[in-house]
Amino acid sequence: MRQAGRYMEDYRKVRERVPFKALCRDASLTAEITVTAQEKIKADAAIIFSDILLIVESFGFKLDYVKGDGPSITPVLKSAADIEGLPTAEPRQTLAYVFQAIQETRRSLKADIPLIGFAGAPFTLASYLIEGGASGNFKKTKALMARDERSWGILMDKIAAATVEFLKGQVDAGVQAIQLFDSWVGWLSPEQYQKYVQAHTKKVFDALESRVPLIHFGTQTAPFLKNFSEAGGDVISVDHRVALSEAWKVIGGEKAIQGNLDPAVLCADLKAIERETRRILDEAGGRPGHIFNLGHGVLPETPLENVIALVEMVHEFSGGACRVRRAGPAF
Ligand code: CP3
């Protein structure tokens, strides 16, 4: 994740010329960024260069990426009437440029490197629409769900339906796995997760009918990991706040796990990176179904050579590149 983010000189150079949204809309630049990142760090899979927030434009919102401030979405959703009035999103039309980007990227990426498509999960997207951007406490989102459960349900249903269409389109365009990002769900209590989120996320996973392997991403999910896992996904992503062995006990041996290096470790030195990498691999104990990954995205200030070194270490310590076992039709 954020493999082509701002820590990469190649990416920053392209970004100097082209605004972020324009980049996402340009299939050949998207392909170039995705492929360059994969080739440079030699990861075993590539994630399409795009963003979880582009879909808000399908609902008629204005989306801007403000330098230094992150994303901004206007107008913000406030009332039951705002939610009732949301148009039906047509992501197959409004996000057709993502499908083109996927096709072009698939053509230029090495054949044995799976391409991952993605979308935001309903809760994380709803929180952006209600907060208007990043939030330190999610109080508007939590107030709305607690005050007006009915409108919250309508909103989550509308987002889930659009997300399903969008992800099906990505699979049709050629992605070989899907990652659903519920990045901010860890701000909820176990009860809030169960009551306001789980069923909506489950609808998205169920509708995809296992056409490709599905990865369920969240952070700070340890207090409700069982519910999070039951919402769906063949692979459950966990961050550094939970031990892999503990997570596996909760999730059960049937599912794969992705994680869980603390991204901040990549800003330390090679010794520390090696120590943490060995520790995580030891904890996974060579069992099938471990995808080594960070618990969250690469931080912008991370030295590129540390990311390259990490991938080399994982390959070396785990006995060779890309020990991908058959996990589904696309692998
Ligand atoms: O790894 C990749 O490069 C793949 C593409 C990718 C991006 N965003 C590109 C991007 C992916 C998989 C995402 C997902 C995404 N976007 C998430 C889920 C993952 C996570 O981080 O939890 C979320 C929450 C977003 C929303 C978003 N988009 C934020 C919060 C920001 C600002 C980030 C910041 O640090 O300023 C973005 C913009 C964004 N998306 C950038 C990139 C490379 C930076 C844009 C720039 O060049 O200025």
Provide tags for this entry.
two-stranded antiparallel sheet, alpha/beta, single chain, seven-stranded parallel beta sheet, binds coproporphyrinogen III, 331 residues, TIM Barrel, 47% helix
How many separate domains?
A: 1
Radius of gyration: 19 Å
Indicate the mean pLDDT: 94
Distinct small-molecule ligands in the complex: coproporphyrinogen III
- Assign the CATH topology: TIM Barrel
**What is the strand content?**
5-15%
Helix/sheet category: alpha/beta
Descriptive overview:
The protein is α/β, with parallel strands linked by helices and 331 residues long. The strands form two sheets. Strands 1-4-5-6-7-8-9 form a seven-stranded parallel β-sheet. It has a two-stranded antiparallel sheet with strand order 2-3. Helix 9 runs parallel beside helix 11 (198-208) and helix 14 runs parallel beside helix 15. It has a single domain, classed as Alpha-Beta Barrel (TIM Barrel), CATH 3.20.20. It has helices at residues 9-17, 20-25, 27-41, 80-84, 91-94, 96-108, 122-131, 139-147, 149-173, 190-196, 198-208, 225-230, 244-251, 270-284, 304-317; strands at residues 46-47, 62-66, 70-74, 115-120, 177-182, 214-218, 235-237, 256-261, 290-294. 42% of the residues are buried. It is globular, with a radius of gyration of 19 Å. The longest helix is centred in the middle third of the chain and has 25 residues, at 149-173. It contains 15 helices and nine strands. The structure holds coproporphyrinogen III. The site of coproporphyrinogen III has 22 residues, from strand 3.
